[in-house]
Amino acid sequence: MTFKRVINNFKKYSFLLSELIKRDFKIKYKRSVLGVLWSILYPLLMMSVMAIIFTNMFKFSMENVNYLVYLMSGLLIWNYFSEATNNSLTSVVGNFSLINKVYIPKYIFPIAKCLFAGINFLFTLIPFFLIVFISGNPAEGTKCTINIYYLLIPIIFLGALMFTIGICYLLSTVTVFLRDVIYIWGIMLTILNYFTPIFYSITILPNELQNIFKFNPLYVYINQLREIVLFNTPPTIQYLFIGLLVGFFTMLLGMLIFRKKQDKFVYYI
Predict the structure, then answer these.
(1) Per-residue pLDDT of the chain (269 residues; tens, 9 = 90+)
(2) Backbone angles phi and psi of 50, in degrees to 5
(3) How many Cβ atoms are within 10 Å of 161's Cβ, its own excluded?
(4) Tell me, what DSSP letter sits at residue 55?
(5) DSSP-derived 3-state class of residue 181
(6) 163 and 170 in contact (C-beta within 8 Å)?
(7) Is the torsion defined by CA of 143, 56, 122, 226 positive or negative?
């Protein structure tokens, strides 16, 4: 299947893609009084709780750094990755009735889960930037300011999106053949959460561990975002390129493996 054919199929089945996303929203917010508003309130409340816990109870603080923004910038990308990958696990097996009845490009289903999580991600940007602009103390040097480097943020998000799509394709493929992945991935996410400097600084680790942690693509995207928002400095062109390159090749790998195995899905789901 050529890249051009994939693009044409996305155009052809764009209505189905939008309906799958709408269905996920309806299921998630069914009988909810506040509905989609929870997409803003939930991350805001969770981030606030974690900020209170880590800044007060465990005393995780950094000198001359707005810790609340530091924490939220990590949670912003982590929550998207976590939600998208968790949803993608059953994106194929959960749509067996559709796959078994009519021809539908199977790669539509993992993408729908990524885009659904992506829309929620866009909602979380509202409380994130709100806190970026109102929190901090100028006297302590913890006040974040708007700078021209914010124009680079979409590039960072693009790299994170491609990386997440690739992982989603891999997970949805493996889950068809091994349902245990649904439970294993939950454990892996917990481990990965601690291996990603979200609520702590990587500088507290020994140099050997720091070098290992820096191979974590999620750290790359989170650190790029923090450089812009917290420290008013742009990531280097090389650093941005690494993020995009890792994201692209992860997405390409995931799509190739998914494509190679998709004809066998019908025998296992």
Answers:
(1) 555 666 676 677 777 778 787 777 777 666 665 666 766 677 677 767 776 776 665 555 566 788 888 888 998 899 999 999 999 998 888 877 777 777 777 888 899 889 888 888 888 888 888 888 887 777 666 777 888 999 999 999 999 999 999 999 999 999 999 888 999 999 999 999 989 988 888 888 888 888 888 899 999 999 999 999 988 899 999 999 999 999 999 999 999 999 898 888 877 76
(2) -65, -35
(3) 22
(4) I
(5) helix
(6) no
(7) positive
The beta-carbon contacts of 115-121 under 8 Å, at least 24 apart in sequence, are 115/17, 115/21, 116/20, 116/21, 116/24, 116/25, 116/87, 117/80, 117/83, 117/84, 117/87, 117/164, 118/80, 118/84, 118/161, 119/21, 119/25, 119/39, 120/39, 120/80, 120/83, 121/76, 121/79, 121/80
Whole-angstrom distance, CA of residue 99 vs CA of residue 234: 45
CA pair distance 223, 84, nearest whole angstrom: 20
Amino acid residing at 234: P
Gap between the Cα atoms of 110 and 264, Å rounded: 17
Q: What are the angstrom distances between the C-alpha of 258 and each of 111, 142, 184, 240, 266? A: 12, 45, 19, 27, 13
Provide the b/e sequence for 219-230 (b: ≥16 CB within 10 Å).
bbbbbbbbbbbb
| 3-class secondary-structure state, position 216 | coil
Residue position matching structure tokens 């909602």: 123
